[in-house]
Amino acid sequence: MNLDGRNLPDDPQQADADHIADVLRPLRELGPPRSTQEGNAARIAVELSRMKPGRRIRDRSWWQKRVTVPLPVAAMVMFALVILSFLQMWNSGNRGHIGMAATQENRPSAANLPSPVAPEISKPNSGFVACEPVFYQEHTVIAGLGTIRSIQYYKCESEQQ
Amino acid sequence: MRQKSAVNVSLPMNPTFDDHLENDELLKGLRQSESQAFDILLARFEAPLYRFFFYAHGRHDRAEDECGETFAQLVHLFPKMRGEPESLRSFVFGVARNVQRRGWRSRSEAQLDADELAKVPTPGPSTFESVVHREQVEQALTLINQCNDPERQVLLLRFVEELKLEEISVALEIPLNTVKSILHRSCARLRQQMQANETSHGSRDK
Fold it and tell me: Which residues of A touch B143 (CB under 8 A)?
């Protein structure tokens, strides 16, 4: 056998290598006994069965895949969701009086009036009281969070008032 | 570490798969953890790995454990393996070397002898029990016993397992030039010793 892949028959180093290769050749005849073969096959089978859950995750469709989120981020998101839902519930129960910094009731100018259809005005002579539709806009504002509730509506105000 | 398992095992004695699978296809299967690919791997590397371990310390039970451990590690390492299909042999022997190195400290300095080899359980009569081979085997073992690692590993990988020098270099994590110099040096030294032994035997006979 060549020592490093070259064919140099007159090379003394090559002759040494060939001689050593010849002497060591009988060592190739040793093979693993049956018990070792069984043990190796069993070991591979066990390790492959352990690998399979991982493979299934890798082969999942995108909607089945999972992502890892750092615990602080997950905790903060959870906390924010809980606070928001709590505020929403409280707000709907108490008409936004909790934590309300200000409730504004403003009468917009004619140019800012939105398009909603105004209610029909009763005719003066029809026996009903004549009224004028007035646009109202209410905002519930929490300092730091901004507007959390906004209501727009028309109210009929009679001319007698 | 030996692991007993109740898993049914089918040995690749009569493989139904293509045993001459090319390395790139085999490596693809191994990376995807296909059991058939591992059957081929077993068929190809079981004996070389067993020999690699056995000749390092001469203990069958230990070689068996190390063999199993190497295959177990390979199952987990192949999906992460980067490299060309040509590097398959060096990769396998590299893992084997790491397994061997882990048990280095607890290793007792066992010496190989033909009696120990004859104890290796085989289905039929052991090759090493035959009188014809015994002398040759003893000579080979005497030669190997005169070497320490990595010299012994380089010699075994080169002349018994027929790895290329580049593969040995990668597997043992030794520079290629060092592998070459180890080979040249150890071959020359062992040859001289053999000649000296022959002359001393010859003079005794006279």
Answer: 20, 23-24
- Please report residues of B whose CB lies closer than 8 A to that of A8: none
B144-180 pLDDT, tens digit each? 887 777 888 888 888 888 888 998 999 898 899 999 8
Compute the distance between CA of residue B173 and CA of residue B93 in angstroms, rounded to an integer: 11
In angstroms, the CA A37 to CA B116 distance is 19
Residue B3 sits at φ, ψ, to 5 deg, of -125, 115
| pTM value > 0.95 | no
Q: Bin B55: left if φ > 0, else alpha if -120 < ψ < 50, else beta.
A: alpha
Please list every residue in chain B whose beta carbon sits closer than 8 Å to the beta carbon of residue A55.
32-33
For B144, the token pair is 């190997």
Q: Can you say whether the dihedral through the CA atoms of B72, B76, B79, B83 is positive or negative?
A: negative
The DSSP element (H or E) to which B136 belongs, if any, is: helix B131-145
- Degrees to nearest 5, angle at CA B49 with A21 and B158: 25
CB contact under 8 A, B137 and A26: yes
